[in-house]
Structure formats: structure tokens, C-alpha cells
Design goal:
The protein has seven helices and no strands. About 25% of the residues are buried.
């Protein structure tokens, strides 16, 4: 009876020891899965914004025309809303999602997530205000609203006309506030920045080696082609030389 009790006790202690390990394993896999989802969401959002075309059919531009957005009709609708409302500040969203996906893929978590989620829209709006001060280049598709979109242009008008503030002062203050908010919302620590730099360095080194290898092969092929052309030229010259 005692041996049976000891056996049951040992099995119970073994289950208790393995349970935290299993929970930790599941948490890591869940974190990595969410990181992958966020990464692809950020990638699709970035492609949609970068390929924005004002001529695409959208919620405020109903036309019978093909969609040129790389993400399709949904990407065209989403990009149109973001560009019209926030301007170039729409790129803040995929940037933040990429940073969060990196944290999750590295199993480092996202501390104070709810606070960062609440500050993210404020960060985008402040960025649009800072961008609204800049001159609109000719290539900008939302030129009628400026680089800051509707939010940035409206806030800039209120602060300069109602608050009697100079545009450069508003722009510099908004840029400073945006920098602090973005640094917190990204949730990247010093180790994260170091790891990102190291990985970017390895990618650049690998790209450099690939480019050098390709260039080396190209140079060898060019040399072979040059020598072949010289041989053919000599043969043709001999064939066309008149016989004495």
C-alpha cells in the first residue's frame, strides 16, 4: 500500500513539474504564431500603402477601372482611407506592426500592450501634424490634402489660425512628441535594436557576397565572350583574305 502511494505521489510530482514546461512551450509557440500573423499583416499593409493609386476604385472614388494596388481591391480601399485621413503618417502603422512581430517572434512579449495600443492612434495623428508643415512634392498622390492628410491639415489650421502659432513651431513640437511616442509604442529594447542591427548587417553581408559572386561570374563570362569574339574575327579575316 505504501509503495502504491509513493508511486502515485511520484507521478503527481512529475505531472506538476512538466505542466509549467508544457505551458511555457505553448506560450512560445503562440507568441511565434502571432508574430508571423503580425509580420504578414504589416507586409500587406505596407504594400497597400506604397502602391496607392488615386485612380483606383475606392470608397470615395467610384469608377469602372481596374485596380492597380498590389493588394487588390481591399488594399486599394484601405490605402485610400489611410492616405486621405493621415497622409504619409500611414506608414507608422506597418512600422509598429513589424516591431511588434519581431518582439513576438523572439519570444520577448509586449509589455503594457493596452497602453501602447491606445497611444498608437495618437502617435499617427501627431505624425500627420508634423508632416502637414512640409511642402507637398509633386509626386504625392494626396496632394490636395498635403503630406499630413485630413487630420494633419485640420490640426495645423486650428493651431496656426486659432492658436496663433507659427507653422515651424508646430512642426518641431509635433515631431518631438511623435519621436517620444513612437519610441515607446515600438516597444523595442536596447537588445532588440542590437539584434536588428546585427541581422541587418548579416543580410547586407550576404547580399554583398552574392553581388560579388554574381559580378565575378559575369566578369568571367564577359572574358570568355571577348576571347570567343576575337577568335571568330580572326577566322573570318583568314577566310576573307584573298589567295595569292
Amino acid at each position: 500500500m505504501a509503495s502504491m502511494t509513493d508511486s502515485v505521489g511520484r507521478k503527481s510530482r512529475g505531472w506538476r513539474r512538466s505542466l509549467p514546461q508544457a505551458q511555457s512551450f505553448l506560450r512560445r509557440r503562440l507568441s511565434e504564431a502571432l508574430g508571423v500573423v503580425l509580420f504578414f499583416a504589416a507586409l500587406l499593409l505596407l504594400l497597400a500603402v506604397m502602391s496607392y493609386d488615386h485612380g483606383d476604385p475606392s470608397w470615395n472614388h467610384v469608377v469602372d477601372a481596374p485596380t492597380r494596388n498590389w493588394v487588390g481591391p481591399y488594399g486599394a480601399h484601405l490605402a485610400d482611407v489611410l492616405i486621405q485621413v493621415t497622409g504619409l503618417a500611414a506608414l507608422v502603422l506597418p512600422l509598429v506592426l513589424f516591431a511588434w512581430s519581431f518582439r513576438l517572434l523572439m519570444n520577448r512579449g509586449l509589455p503594457s500592450l493596452w497602453l501602447r495600443l491606445m497611444l498608437l492612434p495618437i502617435c499617427v495623428v501627431v505624425a500627420s501634424l508634423a508632416l502637414a508643415v512640409l511642402a507637398v512634392p509633386g509626386w504625392w498622390p494626396g496632394s490636395e490634402r498635403g503630406l499630413g492628410g485630413f487630420f494633419g491639415g485640420t490640426l495645423l489650421t486650428v493651431l496656426t489660425q486659432t492658436g496663433h502659432l507659427a507653422e515651424p513651431v508646430v512642426g518641431m513640437a509635433a515631431a518631438a512628441i511623435f519621436g517620444g511616442l513612437l519610441f515607446f509604442v515600438l516597444a523595442l529594447s536596447r537588445d532588440d535594436w542590437r539584434d536588428i542591427g546585427q541581422r541587418a548587417g548579416r543580410v547586407a553581408a550576404a547580399s554583398g557576397r552574392g553581388t560579388a559572386l554574381f559580378a565575378g561570374h559575369g566578369a568571367r563570362l564577359a572574358g570568355i565572350g571577348t576571347r570567343t569574339a576575337m577568335v571568330l574575327r580572326r577566322l573570318l579575316q583568314r577566310r576573307d583574305r584573298p589567295v595569292a
